[in-house]
Amino acid sequence: MKPDLNQTVREIAIEHPSTVRVFESFGIDYCCGGTRSLQDACERAGVPVERALALLAAVKEDSPADTANWGGATAQELIRHIVGRHHSYVRSETPRLMAMFEKVVSRHGQAHPELASIRDLFAALTEELFLHMHKEESVLFPYFERMELAAAQGAAPPPAVFGSVEMPISRMLADHEDAGELLAKIRALSTEYQAPDSACPTYRALYHGLEEFERDLHHHVHLENNILFPRALHMEQGDVELAHEHH
Ligand SMILES: [Fe+2]
Ligand SMILES: [Fe+2]
């Protein structure tokens, strides 16, 4: 985006919801105190104007598309990417969005009762996701890595507590479906993440954050369902050719 020092902070936050992260990081109030110009707000917050302009200019409307070709990566590389990028995103976004929910529900919950329902759905979704990611990180992913290591050494898959990987994988697939259903309900209740015209910047930023959360989770699930899990199944069958068919 192209920041304008004379625009108010509030206008910038409404037009470019991703900028609220920059404002948050500087402690600049973009919501109720957002009627100051960007220049004025920076001065009051003791933030060098050039620094704010540089960070705002770097803000993209959408999180950068992940175009890496994961078909050619090892399971270990893929797992590092999933955990480092998508699991940590869920862990950092959840408290941020819940804090926004508190604010928005207390201010607008009466006029918009759907906000409390959306918050409850989001709380249920993230509670499930935290458990789910823990299962992946503590049991399933380490096993995939051991399997890959064994295959590289020409050895048979190591013994697993769960028998075949098909079992835990089918449970993970069911969790992904449940998460997808909760996200679809949130999307419907929020009328496709469209905040009402009268919505304050926090309300808009919350909806924007939820939409980003959905997009990220869709991508995350795609990497697991469509690349990582099929590869693990092939590895288990000793089908090294197929396990690396994209090389
Ligand atoms: Fe995951
Ligand atoms: Fe998963």
Briefly, what is this?
The protein has 247 residues and is mainly α. The chain is built from 9 helices and no strands. The longest helix is centred in the middle third of the chain and has 39 residues.
Attribute tags:
single chain; 9 helices; 247 residues; 68% helix; mainly alpha; binds fe (ii) ion
User: Helix count?
Assistant: 9
- In angstroms, what is the radius of gyration? 22 Å
Element-level helix/strand string:
HHHHHHHHH
What structural class results from the helix and strand content?
mainly alpha
Which ligands are bound?
fe (ii) ion
Biggest sheet overview: none
| Form type | elongated
Describe this structure in words.
There is one protein chain. The chain is mainly alpha-helical and 247 residues long. Helix content is 68%, strand content 0%. The protein is elongated and about 65 Å long. The chain binds fe (ii) ion (FE2) (2 copies). One fe (ii) ion (FE2) binds at residues 132, 136, 172, 176, 224. One fe (ii) ion binds at residues 132, 136, 172, 176, 224.
